[in-house]
Design a protein that fits this description.
The protein is an alpha+beta fold and 176 residues long. Helix content is 26%, strand content 38%. The protein has a domain at 58-164. The chain has helices at residues 2-15, 21-29, 33-54, and strands spanning 60-65, 68-73, 77-81, 91-94, 97-101, 106-108, 118-129, 133-139, 144-150, 153-164. A hairpin with a 4-residue loop joins β5 (97-101) and β6 (106-108).
Length: 176
Amino acid sequence: MSLIRTGLQRLATVFSGSNGGILSRFLTNVVPAQQQSINTQKEVIETCNRMIAQKPSRNFAIIHLLGKQWRVSDGDLLVVEGYWPPNIGDQIKLEKVLLAATKDFSLIGRPLVQPDLVTVTATVISKGLSHTRVHFKKKRRKQFMRINFQRAQQTMLRINSVEIADKINARPKNEQ
């Protein structure tokens, strides 16, 4: 027991000796963690801004539309069920963007990405009704049968573009 105690005392003197010890010398040579994280954040933002400027890969986004989440990219077709007011040929901007990404990086919103950072535009191609769904009910030995037919309204959208703004973390143009 005394050997363990003396060993621990020796370690304590090495790490916090009168001349500073190993631990204090190590800590003085290390850059503070907060300063490192700020530098890392700036480097990541600069790298993403360079990649956006080069536009090397296809962008995609996850949007929230009529209670559902959709992964969209340029040229995709969406079939949205339920009543939706836009008419055929209308150009619309989908503003509830949850995530935007390329092959190299992702911008994740909490819960949404900044409003002018990502622009997703779409065109309404057609409106109509879905295929006929049959609801058949029957109770055995009771001579009870019902057949109901249901067709839901559908809107078809073509995604024109998914564009990420030129600069991440840049001030909006109306603020100086």
